[in-house]
Each structure stands twice: as C-alpha cells, then as structure tokens.
Amino acid sequence: MVVLNPVSENPMSQAFTTGGEAAHTKLKLLCTLGPASMDPRTIQRLEQSGATLFRINLSHTEPADLPRLIKIIRGATDVPICLDSEGAQIRTGRFVDGQITLRDHALVTVHRKRVPADGKNFNFNPPESVDLLMPGDFVRLDFNSALAQVVSRDDGSVVMRVLQGGPVGQNKAVVIERDLTLPPLTAKDVVALQIGRDLGITHFALSFANSGDDVLEIRNHVGNDAFVISKIESRRGVQNLEEIASHSDALLIDRGDLSRQVPIELLPQAQKSLIKRGNAAQTPVYVATNLLESMVSSSTPTRAEVNDIHNTLADGADGLVLAAETAIGQYPIRCASMISKVIRGYERDGLGEKGFYPEDAISLLIEPHGGRLVHREANGADQEMIDHLEHVSIREKDLMDCEQFAFGTYSPLTGFMDRQTLESVLDTYRLPGGDVWTLPLLLQVDAEKVRNVGVGDRIVLTDESGKVHSLLDVTEIYRYDLDSLAARMYGTTNRQHPGVEQLTSRSDLFLAGDVTLIEPLESPHRHYLLSPAQTRFIFTQLGWSQVVGFHTRNPTHRGHEWIQLQALERTGADGLYINPIGRPEKPGDFLPEAIMLSYQTLLEFGYYPKGRVVLGSFFTYSRYAGPREAVFTALCRKNMGCSHFIVGRDHTGVGDFYPKDASRWIFDAVGGDIGIEPVFFETVGHNPETGEYEVDRGQALERISGTQVRESLRAGSLLPDWFMRELAQEVLMGELQNGRPLFYE
User: How far lies 386's CA from each of 378, 468, 476, 477, in Å?
Assistant: First the structure.
C-alpha cells in the first residue's frame, strides 16, 4: 500500500503486492545490480518485472561496500542475492584516467608493481599474473580491442609489442592464448565470500569454473548448504562440464568470456551443446551476455536479440542473465520486462478463448480481475434475431453499464447480478466464486415493461426512444425490499443520500442475466472512451507495466496535479492514466467535454512529464456508494491495466454519510486479494508561505476545490495560478464565450 502523506493507520492495514507478474514461470531471470539499478525503487520494479535473483558482480565491487549494498537490496526486496566471484581470470588494472590507448607497433610494459598507467606502462590484475607470461604469448585486451605479443620479461615486468592498437579500459578482460592455471578464487573473492556468509547470503556464482575441484574450493568457503552457480567461460570449463555440474546447483554459460576462447562463429553451436549436456546432467543451465545489449542505450531491443532469447529458451535454458543491461544501462526495468515478455511468449499457447480478448502482444500489465477480460459483442447471428425478440427500454445509466459489461470493464462479471450474487456482495464484499467485488450492479425495471418476459428469454434492451443497444439473456427475475437494500448497500436509508434516493424512487423488481452489446451509445467524446482492451494495448505499446489510475469528475486543478505527480513519483510507476468519468450526474456538474479539454490542453503544453501520461474517459456515472464505490472504481482501473489507483479521503462519497477513513477500512477489509494497490491521499492545499502544495495537517493552507472552479468560471473571473493554471482557465472561459456549455443543466 502506498500512502501519500501518512495519517493514523487502521490496525488491520497491510501492504498490497501486485508485482512479480512473471514469477509464475519456472524459468529464472537473474538481474545484475549496479549504478543504474542500485536503488530501492528500481530493485522493486525489477522484482515486479520478473527478477528471481539479484547478482552483485565482485569484479566491479569492493568487499568493503558489500554490507551497504546488501542492506539496500534487502530493504527493497526478499529476492535472494548472489555474489559473483572474480574467479580465475586476468584483467587490466586500474588506470588513472580510466582508459589508455595502445598504438600499433608500440612496445609497452606490463608491470607487477602498480603504475599510474598510460599508453606505454600499465598493470594487470592480479599483479602476479605477469609472472605467468612467457615470450611468444599472444595477449588480447578488452575483448579484442587490442592484440599484443610478449617479447621479453624480467623479474618485475613483461614487454609486449602491439600488433593491433586501440582503446583499452580499466578492469577489462585479458586473454592469454595459452591455457594458464590460476587459483579459482582471488584474495578479494575470499574476503567477499566471508562477508557474504556472515550476512546470510546463500547464493554464490563461481567465475571461470575449470574443474570440479574449483567448485569444491568455493564450497570450502561458502558451505555445502549454499547454492553454487558455476560459470562456464573457458575451454577447460567446456571440457569438464559434467564434472563441474556434479558439484554445482546450476551452470551459467557466459557467452562473453567464453567467446574469448571459442571462435564467435562457433559460439551458437557451443551454446546448444552445453545446454544439452547440462540438461542431461539434470543441472539447471542459465545463459548470459548480450541478451539485450542494444537496450543498454535504446528503449527497445533488436529483432535479432528477441529471436536469440527465444531460441535460447527453445534450446532448453532454464534461466537468463542480464548484466550490463540492468547494471549500467539506461533502461534496466524495460530490459527485465522485455525478458519476461519473451519468456511469456515462449510459454503461452497463443490461443484465445471465445468470449474473451486474446492478447495480441505479451504484456506485463496486471492481470484483469478474475484472470481474463470479458468481451461480449454481438455477432451476425445475434443481429439477425433482434426483430423477433421482446424489446425493453431502460435508463441511459443502465445502458452505460451494459457497455462496460460487454467491454470487460466489470470483469469477471458478464451481466447484471442475480439474488445470490447480490447477497454475496452485500455480505462478504465478494462474488460467489470468491473474487473481491463490493458494489451491486443491478437492473431495476418496471413490472409493466417486462410482463411478457420470463426466465430463459433473450430480450433486446433499448433506450427510451427505442434505439437498440444490447441483448440480455434473462437468468432470474426477482423482487427485493428497497429499504433493506439501501441500508446494506449505502449504510443508510436516509432519502437525503442521492444514491438512496435514486434506488428507492424506482421499482423493486430486478432482472439478472448476461449482456451482449449490439450498438454503443452515441457520445460527442467517443474518441476518449477507451475500453480496457484499448488501454491495455496503449500501455503495452508504451512499454508500461506499472500504471497509476486517477478518477475524477472535475477539470484539472493544481491540487490534483500535485497528487497525480506525487503518486507517479512515489510508486515508481511507468505512467499515469488520467481517467475522468464520462457522464455528469446532477445540475452544475462539469460536462465531460470541459474536463477532457482542460487536461488535453495541459498535456499539449507540456505541463505533465512527456511520455508518461495517457488521457481517456470512463463512460460511467457516480453512484455515491462511498467506500464500496472506491473499491469498485479501483477494480475497473485494474481491468484497464492499472497497477495502482489514487483514492481520495472521501472518494465517491457524499456529505457526512461516511467516515473520512471509510475507504481505508474497506481496502483493509478486502485485503491483498484485490490485486491493485490503493494510493491514499489526504486533503491538499497551497501554502502561501512556502509556495508549495502540502497535506492539510492544521497549518494555514489555501484550499482548492472543484466548487470554486465552477463559481469562478460562471462569474467570468480568473482564479490565482496556484489554484488552477491560467491556461486551463483561459480555454474553458473561451468555450463559454463561444457559446459552448461547460456545465450540465
């Protein structure tokens, strides 16, 4: 649960979780943490995107930093941490400027003693590795950036001639074209592993595992109870794979380091062979390096990368590893999300069920409520029978509900509730099948209109003019005491409550049944009316997996702006879905066109963060059901693809009929089963002393309300910019001056 501006908590309050959307899969995703991702919010988002293990690369981490880094990770997630050793490898040393340039044909000296490093003199790490070099050895530096040959040596250095020059970075791979025997662990590894064990780390990766004895060596330091991943990245590792696997909990094929000893053109078949051998040894096999290399600097992968990942899974890999992509790349969350989407694409059967939307693209958005998005639109056979069916006219509001049933906004519901479902919702906040649902959705009808209708009939639902809208397959016709229903639904029978007044002023007869849409209602802002399938398509195309939903019935003002952007920042979500309701309820309410115009204008003028906001209208109406409606509106946004939903202090309430913390209590009552995180906020005002927007805690704040906006616009006077942006006021006043209405009269 995200609480903006905390207040005293209900003792039943608990955190809601929506992440780990890819966690259902058996395939593992290992994400390396580094400068681009070593912060709590990114770590949490990586977990939500499917990460099952977080890797700390000891080649780029000092042992003294481990306690701090482990604390950061554990403060954000329970996903296990893996310490990845430096292992039996040679790297370039530290360079004062971070990089040197070797010139063709130059003679250069590699010293055992540390030197500042330039194009003539530098170090290898570990320093004693120079003792292993012999005249005639070919040396490749920084993954083939430079090639040199040893020409002489003495007690403290070797001299090499540069055959191919180029830039060489510090702490980069050095390959000797001769098999060398190096200890499986460096002195730094030993210190780091001990720190890890002392801090309760249980997962470790052994770099450059060359033999079974190497694995036994790391187990001497981390214990037989540790989970050891042995990395295959040398010729000897390839040759001894079965022996290594017998002592390991998993294998990791590091294609980058392996390509230093296996020609790159032979690497694909080497990978296939290694996976096959690992599978035969019944040891999980992970694959690393260059899975999404282009996404280090690009927001989307190449087709070749996606194809490579899919084929790697098809070869039998049990997991995938992201390194630079999440450690230093610009798009760590998108990289993890892309891997998870490819995994889902690999695993899914690609077949959609009749009556439900198939997914055209793999999405990491939250699943629809109940697991699938309802889709009920008429086909040709449905259309042909319309003239032969009983026609029943119903209210426009009920027709709006029909649309939302058909488009899946009310998933998993497929139509108006029967008595059993109604009782379950009133008593338990759940549908009979167990899914959370708090608000009755009922079709009240006059007995005279349905005198020829019986259970089992299919009828046509029309508007008052007789225009055909939907079909209803009647499953039950029942009566219900309206005062009892009002008391249980609204918590009161007081006719001053608008919801109670609407309910009790109508018939006590109800029809239940599944709805099939024939023709949507006409609307001047139909282009803004996005169905859940459409919002999910948009969010997926934008690369979003976490979305904050915002519900309103007023034009934008600065208080709402502040709340929206605060929610976006504090949740770490990819985007914000501003989703005003599309129907005014009572005289004086803003028309949908005015609300959408105010937001559209601010979006066009760049007052919201670019690429992080979508605007769409929700074709529904206020029911004034207070806390029950707060959960209902959240579930509708969940079906639209939102992972978070902003909930106001008296969300969809009316007057003083509900306690100020009623919405908090009902979200606590339904618990984590709702599947979407509420983002609570309190009353916000403008502090004239600081110029900031703040939560009302009794300090002197200037209030912001939709009522004042209405009064100001009607009077033709401008509010201060801190209240509502001048630009938004100007466009709305311009509408009035041009004779276009802003209010429902």
Answer: 11, 9, 21, 21
- SS3 per residue for 693-714: EEECCCCCCEECCHHHHHHHHH
Architecture of domain 527-622+682-737: 3-Layer(aba) Sandwich (3.40)
State residue 14's pLDDT score.
Answer: 26
pTM of the entire predicted model: 0.80
Query: How far is CA 302 from its chain centroid?
Result: 21
The three state secondary structure string of 74-110 is HHHCCCCEEEECCCCCEEECCCCCCEEEECCCCEEEE
List, as one string, the DSSP characters of 347-362: H----PPTTBPPPSS-
Residue pair 236/256 in contact (Cβ under 8 Å)? The answer is: no
Select from 252, 326, 259 the least CA-distant residue to 293.
326
Domain ranges of the chain: 27-86+185-346, 90-176, 380-517, 527-622+682-737
Catalytic residue status for 94: no
Q: Are 113 and 126 in contact (CB under 8 A)?
A: no
Structure-token pair, residue 56: 């700390």
Widest CA span of the chain, in angstroms? 108
**Dist. CA 201–CA 187, nearest whole Å:** 19
Q: Which of 554, 612, 649, 687 is catalytic?
A: 554
d(CA 577, CA 616): 7
CATH class of residue range 380-517: alpha beta
Asked if 463 and 399 count as a contact pair (C-beta separation under 8 A), the reply is yes
Average pLDDT of adjacent 10-residue blocks, the chain of 745 residues: 37 29 70 97 94 96 96 97 91 92 95 93 91 92 89 94 94 85 90 97 96 96 96 94 97 92 92 97 96 95 96 96 97 95 80 52 88 93 90 96 97 98 97 96 96 96 95 97 96 94 96 96 83 94 93 92 94 95 76 92 95 94 91 97 89 76 88 89 89 88 86 89 94 91 81
Two structure tokens written together for 35: 């400068």
Q: Which class is domain 27-86+185-346?
A: alpha beta
Asked if the domains at 90-176 and 380-517 fall in one CATH topology, the answer is no
> Is the backbone of residue 316 left (phi > 0), alpha (psi -120 to 50) or beta?
left
Choice among 45, 236, 344, 553 that is catalytic: 553
Torsion of CA 592, 597, 598, 600, to 10 degrees: 120
Query: Domain 90-176, what fold?
Result: M1 Pyruvate Kinase; Domain 3 (2.40.33)
DSSP E strand stretches across 188-265: 203-206, 227-232, 250-254
Kindly write down the DSSP assignment for every residue of 249-265, as one continuous string. SEEEEEHHHHTTTS-GG
3-state secondary structure of 306: helix
Catalytic pick among 52, 421, 462, 552? 552
CA atoms of 218 and 223, how far apart (whole Å): 8
Residue 552 is among the residues annotated as catalytic for this protein:
yes
The predicted structure's pLDDT at residue 446: 96
What region does 460 belong to: left with phi over 0, alpha with psi -120 to 50, or beta? beta
